[in-house]
Amino acid sequence: MTAQQQDALAPVRAALLAEARAEAERELTAARLDADATLARARARASSILDAAAQEGRADAASSIAAEHEKARRAARTVELTAQGEIYDELLQRVTAAVARAFTEPSRREQLVAAVHAQLGAGAVVRDAPGGGVTGEVTGRLVDLGVQAVTGRAVDALGDEVRALWAP
Q: How far apart are CA 164 and CA 105, in angstroms?
């Protein structure tokens, strides 16, 4: 190619080069915009994943805390019920001991026999009860004035007053 031909083609070459540069710049701008959009979507997705993980973590923590609270509440209730049972058992032992002592008094047996006859009549068969006191029976009817029965009735008669032993 001659210099004159090259000079004649120079404006065409410059125009083609300018068009190629403009097209490259448009492609580069489009690629940058696409990359920015992809990066923004990735950031939004990452933020969404982090938010979901944090929310799940808070929910798991709340559930775990609630389970621990329930476990502690049950343990405290068990301790409370055990203490109440011990107090009740001690009350029964003390009342049983007091009734047993009272039933060893010489005149007490006569009073108990009289109480049986008052309830069942003079024909009642009266026997000594195991542990102290007496029982009486007549034709299918029984009166138990033994230590255990009297103790049980005495404590039952206290009703809600027994709860005052462990109430604040």
A: 31
Burial class of residue 99, CB neighbours in 10 A (0-12, 13-18, 19+): buried
3-state SS class at 122: coil
Helix (H, G, I), strand (E, B), or coil: what is residue 124? coil
Q: Among candidates 108, 103, 83, which has minimal Cα distance to 149?
A: 103
**pLDDT tens for residues 141-153?**
999 999 999 998 8
- pTM value? 0.57
What is the distance of C-alpha 163 from the center of its chain? 24
Rounded-to-integer distance, Cα 149 and Cα 70, Å? 40
Question: Got the DSSP string for 130-167?
Answer: TTSEEEEEETTEEEEEEHHHHHHHHHHHHGGGGGGGT-
